[in-house]
Design goal:
The strands form 2 sheets. Strands 2-3-5-4-6 form a 5-stranded mixed beta sheet, covered by helices on one side. The chain has 611 residues and is mainly alpha-helical. The protein starts with a strand and ends with a helix.
Length: 611
């Protein structure tokens, strides 16, 4: 820290109690100056030789020996510094008291007109030659200016400090030689560093956001002015600005908030959040992370910010929704909503995000003449995956209605959800937690899922899921057979024609699957499978699977009966078959020659994988 010593005489000020200060001298004091609650017993001549204001006041007082200094900036401590300077005693100025001394000297009119080398001149030299050249001293001085407004503002100390700080933030990190606070050094991945640097360089070099923690100690009004100046210089990218805002929010916003907080503190938090929203970087592609924006939104809802600020924050979040995590979206609902989480807000954000994606795609189509999803497609797929995870979390809420669940799920376009495993998980949780659902309600919620888009693992689980309607289980098993038939036929074709073993394309597999599906659909239409038919055939809803002698786990009875029906129907080469009541648990009895090994092996492997 920089400092400056003035005067050469030893300090002769002494105290009598807490309210009286005097100068120990052989000469008797001849004037008392009241500053606040403290009385200063001093001598007229030293004061009048340095202060034009005291000269006029003492001249008018005549024989009066007591003068009141009303609204003295800095109070008794500031006046004592000036009085010591008048006596030529040693005074040490530093970043903590220089603003106080400067404002007091201005009040007392200690200018060059009164005496050459007066206090104002010396303080200005100290500020411009030392304080404003020091990073941390500039911040300390700026902090002290708040209690001395409007004096510090009128004397341009505030503006000079802000310019000094903002200029230093724009310095090339490689040129920084002064000390700074960076408590996030242990979290190397969080550091914002230049691309193309090796790991050691990343640890040892000065990060681009080296300055954000030091200015976090500023009051929100001063912090806002510093950030506006930093942004106005145009040398700071949005990512660093976003990191600065995040760090400030972590420093001043509490981890939790409840209704018992006083109104004054609630107003303070609201004011802080609204100013942080105003400072968000204009660069929507970079800047603040979506996770930080959502945390800011959570707190904004709790403190009740105005609608315009909230609307702006929602808009910014919708542009980066694909970067969020499920945890970020879990925003607690406020009355009159009776659900645990605020689904209406998330629905609004999702709708805005999808509208933005559609606009981007339309613009790209108009410019290039070709509808290429590219990055926008990947972004929307991430949003779809995010919402499926969110649905799985909120599905535990007993107050969550089917209509709300369905509406949010349907808001995701089909192309943004190429795989339905996440949606199936959410539906399964909802069915498990809402046991009182009717058949119609189960049909409605399961209608969201396309069983053709389930992976093998999800299909295996669904085939054994007794919470699903029977029709859905039939569809799962049916398309599993289509998938198996297309795979086996492809392998058979390759075995007969080695020259095509490496040229079997996806289109050929899809054609094979389509042919198998068409044949199976015709057979399924004749089967007329209904819930009642299977319920008559025995214990179809067993939870436990049967174990063969070989230790291989089989499907539950309901799924296996359906599985065996589809197996036989799908092959179309069955010579004879046992009755449904006595032989439904047996494997097919006749398979076309040449395919026995492939299908037998496939069947055993599939059954084992179910376990």
């Amino acid at each position: 820290m920089k400092f400056m010593k003035l005067g050469s005489k030893p300090d002769a000020f002494q105290a009598h109690g807490k309210s009286v200060r005097y100068v120990a001298s052989e000469l008797e004091t001849d004037v008392t100056i009241n500053v606040g609650e403290v009385k200063f017993n001093l001598h007229k001549f030293p004061l009048m030789s340095k202060s034009n204001r005291l000269l006029m006041l003492l001249s008018k007082a005549g024989e009066e020996k007591e003068i009141d200094m009303v609204d003295f900036p800095g109070g008794p401590k500031a006046f004592e510094i000036c009085a010591k300077f008048c006596y030529g005693m040693i005074v040490t100025l530093n970043a903590y008291n220089v603003v106080t001394a400067r404002c007091a000297a201005e009040y007392l009119e200690m200018t060059e007109d009164v005496d050459r080398g007066n206090l104002i001149f010396k303080i200005e030299v100290f500020l411009n030659s030392s304080i404003f050249h020091s990073w941390k001293d500039s911040i300390i001085v700026l902090q002290t200016t708040k209690s001395l407004l409007p004096w510090s503002e009128d004397l341009k100390i505030v503006g000079s400090c802000i310019d000094s700080i903002a200029s230093k933030t724009s310095v090339d990190p490689a040129s920084i030689t002064w000390s700074y606070t960076y408590n996030r050094k242990l979290s190397v991945p969080d550091k914002i560093v230049e691309e193309g640097m090796n790991f050691r360089d990343k640890i040892d070099s000065v990060p681009k956001d080296w300055w954000v923690e030091d200015i976090c100690e500023l009051d929100i009004d001063l912090y806002k002015r510093v950030m506006i100046t930093v942004k106005s210089k145009g040398r700071m990218d949005g990512q660093v600005i976003g990191e600065a805002l995040k760090t400030y929010a972590v420093r001043w916003l509490p981890d939790s908030f409840d209704d018992s907080v006083s109104d004054a503190r609630t107003w303070r938090y609201r004011y802080l959040v609204e100013n942080l929203i105003c400072l968000l970087p204009p660069d929507k592609a970079a800047g603040c992370s979506c996770s930080f924006l959502l945390k800011l939104l959570k707190f904004a809802i709790l403190v009740g910010i105005d609608d315009s600020a909230r609307e702006y924050l929602v808009k910014r979040i919708s542009l980066k929704l694909h970067e969020a995590s499920v945890k970020d979206l879990l925003i607690l609902a406020r009355p009159p909503q009776n659900t645990l989480y605020d689904m209406e807000l998330i629905q609004c954000i999702v709708s805005r995000s999808l509208m933005h994606g559609k606009y981007s795609q339309d613009t790209k189509h108009e410019e290039n003449g070709d509808f290429i999803l590219g990055h926008e497609h990947e972004t929307l797929m991430n949003v779809g995956k995010l919402i499926d995870g969110y649905l799985a979390e909120i599905a535990y809420d007993p107050n969550l209605t089917i209509s709300s669940f369905v509406d949010l799920s349907r808001s995701i376009p089909e192309f943004a959800r190429p795989i339905h495993d996440g949606l199936y998980k959410a539906i399964d949780i909802y069915l498990k937690e809402h046991l009182s659902m009717t058949k119609a309600e189960k049909k409605k919620i399961c209608g969201l899922m396309d069983v053709k888009k389930l992976t093998t693992d999800a299909s295996t689980h669904a085939a054994q899921n007794e919470r699903l309607p029977l029709r859905v289980v039939v569809q799962v098993l049916f398309f599993e057979q289509v998938r198996a038939a297309s795979g086996v036929q492809a392998l058979s074709n390759n075995a007969r024609d080695p020259s095509n073993s490496t040229t079997n394309t996806d289109e050929e597999l899809e054609k094979t699957a389509a042919d198998g599906k068409k044949s199976l659909m015709k057979q399924m239409s004749r089967m007329k499978i209904k819930d009642e038919d299977f319920l008559k055939n025995g214990k179809l809803l067993k939870r436990n699977s049967k174990i063969t002698k070989n230790g291989v786990q089989l499907l539950p009875s309901r799924s296996k009966r359906i599985f065996d029906r589809l197996w036989v129907v799908g092959r179309g080469h069955v010579e004879n078959r046992s009755s449904e009541t006595s032989g439904s648990s047996q494997s097919p009895t006749s398979i076309a020659p040449g395919d026995t090994k492939s299908f037998g092996s496939s069947s055993r492997q599939r059954r084992h994988s179910i376990s």
